[in-house]
Design goal:
It is built from nine helices and no strands. By secondary structure, the chain is an all-alpha fold.
Length: 239
């Protein structure tokens, strides 16, 4: 293909991705109430059990006339990316694969599938640990502090935690890739195991947006398991 043909192909893929994003965002706009109810459930559950620490029975508080609408648009945009992600990834794959050899395509499929599975696992862990994290964040404020949350900041923290967990859980894919291309070896990773444990603990402490101990443990423990697993997988692939 010529440069112009490549650019034409790229334009076609981008247009399809934009259309998918718009359609996904429209779906997200109408699903807002159901999604915000799911996200707010841990907050409302805590309010029912501890009414003195949470005001308005766990309802979100908006402090400006545009905050409710802007929050709905924000949630719709997040959902748009989520709903359209299969199409976005497919279009990216269709644009890249013509330039790959057969064996490279086989490796790429394995890495992409593993990355998607691990990212989804990270998001799931974040959603599961969020009630405990929120419980800690409300309790640590003390009995004389009422937790009245605005929807925008709450949703932003919720999504940030899910996204960070998803990205950090790609750690073993990166390690295996570095071993396959020869940047590091499984022997080297075994030698630096103790510093790696400290580094993993430091990373989990720094990147968790909620800074609570439950999120820290939920991130640090799987990362160490992934580290050991990546060493084994790297040795098998090199052989």
């Amino acid at each position: 293909m010529t440069l112009v043909e490549h650019l034409t192909e790229l334009r076609k893929r981008i247009i399809i991705c934009i259309i998918a994003l718009v359609i996904g965002t429209l779906f997200g706009f109408f699903l807002y109430n159901s999604v915000i109810h799911f996200i707010a459930h841990p907050y409302q559950d805590f309010a029912r059990k501890h009414p003195k620490q949470v005001g308005l029975q766990g309802q979100f508080v908006v402090t400006g006339p545009l905050e409710g609408f802007s929050t709905r648009l924000k949630v719709a945009a997040y959902l748009g990316v989520f709903f359209s992600s299969p199409i976005l990834l497919w279009e990216l794959w269709r644009f890249i694969t013509p330039g790959l050899h057969k064996h490279e395509r086989r490796y790429a499929i394995s890495f992409v599938a593993s990355a998607l599975a691990l990212f989804s696992l990270g998001v799931a862990v974040s959603v599961l640990v969020w009630p405990k994290a929120l419980d800690f964040l409300i309790r640590i404020g003390g009995n004389n502090v009422a937790a009245l949350y605005g929807p925008s900041k709450y949703v932003s923290l919720y999504v940030a935690a899910a996204a960070i967990f998803g990205v950090v859980f790609l750690f073993p894919v990166v390690l295996v890739f570095l071993q396959v291309v020869g940047v590091v070896s499984s022997r080297k990773l075994r030698k630096v195991r103790r510093p790696a444990i400290v580094g993993i603990a430091f990373l989990a402490c720094v990147v968790t947006p909620s800074s609570d101990p439950y999120s820290f443990i939920a991130m640090a423990v799987p990362l160490y398991i992934f580290y050991e697993s990546a060493i084994v997988i790297g040795r098998i692939l090199k052989k």
